[in-house]
Amino acid sequence: MFSSTAPLNLAASTAEDRRGQGPGPEERYILTWGANANRQCLSDEARVIPSPKHVPFLRPLRSFCAGWDGSLLLDSEGALWGGGSNRGQCLSEELSDEHVPLSRLDVAELDAVPFEAADMGRDHIMAILEGGRAVISWGPSNEFGQIGHGLPYRSRVRPGVVHLGGVLVKQVACGEHHSLVLTAHGEVYSFGCNLHGALGSGRCGSQEQAERVLGNHLRSMPVRGIAAGPQSSMALSIGGHVFCWGCNSRGRLGLGPAYDQEPTVLAPVSVPTLPGVARAIAAGGQHSAVILRRGRLFLAGDNRSGQLGQSRKDVDWTSTFFELPFQDYMLRVRTVALGKKHTLILSYDGELYACGCNAEGQLGSRASSSDGTPVDVPTRVKLEVEGTSDKDCMVVGLSSCHDHTVAMVISMPKIIEETKMIQGRPQTSASTRDGRRWNGDAAAHQPLDAAAAARANRAAMFIKTMNTIHEELPPAQPPDASPDLSMPPRPSTGQRHSEVLTSGCTSRVGRSPRGRISVALPRLRRTGASGGDEGLLEEVVLLQPVVQPGVAASVGFASLSVAKLLDLIQAAQGGPGAMEDLRSSLSAAFSSPSLLNASFCFPGLYKPRLDAGGLLKVFKGLIGSEELFAQVEMHMVNAAFEGLSLWANDHDEAASLIHRDQLRGLAALLLSPVLVDPGKPQPYEVMCRIMRLVAWMPAEGRRELQELLIDDCSEEEVLRSLVSRVRLHCDETVLRAHQMQRLSPEIWEGLMLLQLLWGTNEAIAQRLAKSLRSSEWPEADFGQSLAQTLSQLGKPAASVLGRFTLAPQVRPPVPSSEFHLQSLAEEKVPPELEFRLFVENACAGPITPSEVLELPLYAARTDYGFEYVLPSKMRSFMANRNLVPVSYTRKVLQVENHHAQVYLQHQVARRVAADLEVLPGHEIHIDPALLFFILKVHRDRILEDTTAALQKATPEDLRRQLKVVFEGEQGVDEGGLAREFFRLLSAHVFTVEGGLFDPLVAQNARVLWFNSASVRESTEFWLAGVILGLVVYNNMPGLDVRFPPVVFKKIKNEPLVLEDLRQVHPDTYLSLRSLLSWEPEEELDEEERNAIFENTFCLDFVVTYEMNGATETRELCEGGKDRVVSYKNREEFVRLYCEWLLTQSVERQFEPFRKGVRRVCDSPLFNALHSAELELIVCGEQALDFAQLRKNAHYDGYQEDSSYIDSFWKLLMNFDLVQKKRFLSFVTGSDLAPVGGLQELQLVIQRNGDEPTERLPTAHTCFNLLLLPEYGDSSKLERMIVTAMHNAEGFGLE
């Protein structure tokens, strides 16, 4: 039972009593001004207090707030004091007067209860218990449920606890009839009147109990500050995004023209037009304010009273936040307080300015406007405390509500005279800001310089004083720019916590010694030798945060940092008590999306960034301690399930996940140790939920998630870990589908996330490459990621590269092979099934990683009812071909080719049966020449015979299955003869001696490139293309040719770039790169740079080349011989030069070649192939790893572990590359490894007799079968195998 005490009235205290105590310069005072009809200014003198008036208060002050018709003060012991309207006896039960003077609150339930912060609405009061343990609310009326407990009646509600689930409370904010509460988890709760949508619930009905604001963009959003207007609400995320909802009359929410016709906004909406990171917000009667980094103030809403600081003639109201530009550009806003129709602005040097309605003295300008004329230019408010005329006052806390203001000030020695200010107020101009000087004459500069000196001196004294004012208060954690601090379960008054979630002006620049905040203030440069002003510099100073009404300063964000997690893990290894702390901390973080989105970030950055590398290292340490991990694993899994359900339960809820602050925790969740083993049921389900959440997201959310991964997870180890976990999960989904004989939606959702990571990987490489070509060095900005900073690297880097060497080609951090699904390489999905999926869903072409970000979901009937599913285009592995191993792609292509061949055979059979009028069920005999493309050649005239046969063949003939017959030899072609045929034919066609290819390119670049001076007929180039097409169409292992990748890009009509020239003409490439990287030694204007460039290189848009012994010239563009290559147009010259070398100069030779390829290969799957995949299929694998060949070998008559077989493999392993190629040709008919490596071959070694014998090993190349006798010793084994290899050309009957 709470006891009651008589109120203690401090009104009798006088300034004379205070002077007797000898206050020091750091002493705190309370000043009030404005409307005083209900004694809300804590004064009995008049109905209006036109200028700041000192309120005697002897106790050390902790916090304060201005309410609708009253004011509250909190002393250092947590006691509440107040004055003003006593309706419902909410301030004092002993006094029945309508108005109560400043006295300690006399309510039985509040006696001896320590509070930390409070706020007042029209009919209710909310106060935070010390340490943020709970919110107590009471008031004279609960008509709309604004008190959060009790019945919704127009009668007094006594103090009671607002139920919030036991979470610590950081801040409270009261509107006219609604309430907002911010917890230490960054979650916003609301209750009360919702007629104008101020609760953000998405509906208009009032709420009697606190409910979390989850509507629209606040879902999973970690919020660091809130503000409440009479019928509107605002929230500020840790990343500096501002969200508004409620009454939008006259654009007060600042949501832009799109919402001008919306009188109410029922759910939180992100403010779209802010040009930077917000660090403070404020809500007024009909206007709102946002303070950006570096103290830039933006206002929106009604301006009929000039409360936006703009001329009422120019701006009546605006729905877009626009900056209040001070011509005195040194003025930076630290905090702002908004009343019903007025605005108060506190600068970083402690000066106070006001604008707006002054009918009741709201502006503190000594005289109210009796005629109602408002002040629409911010005017400095003169602050004085009675008895301290020799000192200045600096504001360190500000609260304004309706028509009155309460300010907390400190005194300091008066150094600067008032006359040195520019007419006592700053000037405003839309064209001056951020250090850009007012463009006037020198004389006009002088007053501004005097003001600058005055403000610099004043700021120095202010800083000195500010750094001491909090030392007498109970210790509180200094503010930190990072939300990356942990919150213990039961904080006490003496604990130190972060000020991260305050909605006030806590600087987010970084942590500084002694818990103070570093901030840049202007200072004057010294005068140069010429006596002129050299401009202004910035000086970094240390400030304490201003006192924020309604904010519990000792309560920090409960987020978990990497350092704190490491400490918890190390402590848990020492005892069971610490183990429980580790469990509870991890469970709390993973079960709350808003908390996880703010956890594990780098400390000290104004823009939160995930410390992915540090987190991964700590998680690896946790996994390494198996016993410790076993005790926390299931707690983390259960918490992850709970958190994912709060993130979004369906497509509609996920539609609002579009901000980075809503998604950062997903990266942390993907790095968590619970997802290491996807084979376990619980981790598998957690990963499925994550992938489904990504699939549910709108396109904007997926793009933002990818940008987050690019910025925060660009470290190679981190990205490899993410890719590995997602790929392993995708393999697991395929494996489960193989076991269940059913393809589930989880497969395609997993591929979507893997594609997103692919795009991340490529984007990182592109940005790093771009950083080497940028124009200037970036300004240091610790809020940027590494990738962002590198992308701004500039001209010094380009100059160095141009002077010394070329930059190496930037490759993605993760090789593409690590994205490939191994389950497909193992054929867990049969190629025949995938071919059907491709034909049904993805014939239109493959999906690009960027396209995946934009894919919408569709409502469809599934086995589980109606669900949102990915479009059919996604439901094919070959549609995501960048994730498919090339070996599997080749097998699916083989299926497609086989289907085409069988289809043609069936067509022939039907025609023959129709011509012969054969009845169904009767046998018919068909000429094999009608079913197959039979190619008869002589081994010594293979080129001539092939040319003649191919020229006679029709396109239909070429698309039949190829059968090769060597004249004069016995042999039935089951694949081996064809492989031998292509090997011999390529030795004649794809050589420099044939005249088709350029000998100089072959000598310099060691690749085959088309000879632009060739006199050979176009049919010969066409023949080469047909041969290449037949290799692909008939599923041959490949050709032993050295085509550069640019050839396959041209076949696939992919765009060419400068790097492609490097493969063919490396010397020309180096010259062109040097041309692009050239920079002048000093800064010059464009005309001078062009002149120096032209004199240095002396180039025009003409190319000169040799053709059959004669020198030829060609213009690269119209009028090229008269056009000089300059610094400005050099990129165009390089582009045209590359186009000439790679395309136009060889067009006569390459076009027949490409048509020859397309004559044979022209199918949907072939068209979907990427050039790199086509290159592998045509050329095969270059590496010959015989260990892979042994791994998949089978034996007939031998044991795998026998000593003889071991000797056989040792012999093969010791072969050089030439001998290995000969062995492969002997056994398989081709000296190339198939796509996917030698593991794709199924070599069969069959015992073929034993000693005594002189029989050579023999092979059936069609079946990869080696008939191997068992020789007596290893030397004989080597001699017989080498002999067989060198005498293997020709075929007997197979």
Automatic annotation (TrEMBL):
**The keyword DNA-binding is assigned to this record:** no
Residue ranges, compositional bias (Pro residues): 475-491
Is the Nucleotide-binding keyword given for this protein? Answer: no
Q: Where are the RCC repeats?
A: 133-185, 186-239, 240-294, 295-349, 350-411
> Which sites are catalytic?
1262 (glycyl thioester intermediate)
| Domain (HECT): residue spans on this chain | 954-1294
Region Disordered: which residues? 1-26, 472-512
Pfam families, per this entry?
HECT, WD40_RLD
State the UniProt keywords alphabetically.
Answer: Repeat, Ubl conjugation pathway
Q: Out of the domains of life, which is the source?
A: Eukaryota
What ranges does the record list as Basic and acidic residues composition bias? 15-26
Name used for this protein in its record: HECT domain-containing protein
Q: Where is the composition biased (Polar residues)?
A: 492-506
